[in-house]
Amino acid sequence: MLFKVEMDVKVPLDYDVDHFADLKRKELERFQELQKVGTWRHIWRVVGLYSNISIFDVTSSSELHDVLISLPLYPFMEVRVTALCRHPSSIHDDDR
Ligand SMILES: O=C(O)CC1=CCC(=O)O1
């Protein structure tokens, strides 16, 4: 199952810089793991914002929920999820 996930990262201005750098390093590690196994299929930066638009490939909405709340930066994110399904005109086999 494919989902579009929009993530806005919102960091309080007075948050400890070193602690946040550590969370970003952990987020990168988790992101790379999920990308390697194909769960986090695509990511784009939203120009001018600390936001991304991503495509996740998971077996269920529960799996997506568990993945999202496991992200180190999750406590600082506003997340919007959109379920996707194959377009009947698509020529691609892997977009379902
Ligand atoms: O930078 C972001 O948008 C948050 C994030 C997602 C994966 C990652 O490494 O950082």
TrEMBL record:
One Pfam family cited in the UniProt record for this chain: MIase
Signal peptide start and end residues: none
Record-level Gene Ontology MF annotations: muconolactone delta-isomerase activity
Presence of the UniProt keyword Hydrolase in the record: no
Keyword terms of this UniProt record: Aromatic hydrocarbons catabolism, Isomerase
Domain Muconolactone isomerase: residue ranges: 1-89
Biological processes annotated in GO: beta-ketoadipate pathway
InterPro entries: Dimeric_a/b-barrel, MLI_dom, Muconolactone_d_Isoase
Enzyme Commission number(s) of this protein: 5.3.3.4
Catalytic activity: (S)-muconolactone = (4,5-dihydro-5-oxofuran-2-yl)-acetate
Pathway per the UniProt entry: Aromatic compound metabolism; beta-ketoadipate pathway; 5-oxo-4,5-dihydro-2-furylacetate from catechol: step 3/3
Highest taxon, organism lineage: Bacteria
Similarity annotation: Belongs to the muconolactone Delta-isomerase family.
Subunit and partners: Homodecamer.
Name used for this protein in its record: Muconolactone Delta-isomerase
Natural source organism: Sphingobium boeckii
Lineage, broadest ranks: Bacteria, Pseudomonadati, Pseudomonadota, Alphaproteobacteria, Sphingomonadales
